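User: Please predict the structure of the protein below. I'd like the answer in structure-token form so I can feed it into my own downstream comparison script.

Assistant: Understood. Taking the following sequence of 42 residues as input:
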Amino acid sequence: MERDAFVDEVMRGAGLLIVHIPVSDSYDIEELRELIFGDFNQ
């Protein structure tokens, strides 16, 4: 968790977006697409 906060801060400082996707046995491709690209499609 502490490392995630550090990485988030560094990425934010660089002006980059980071998306955290929880580990799973399987993924719904449409859900992933929305998580990754959702904000860009608006």
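That's the full token string. DSSP finds two helices and no strands in the chain.
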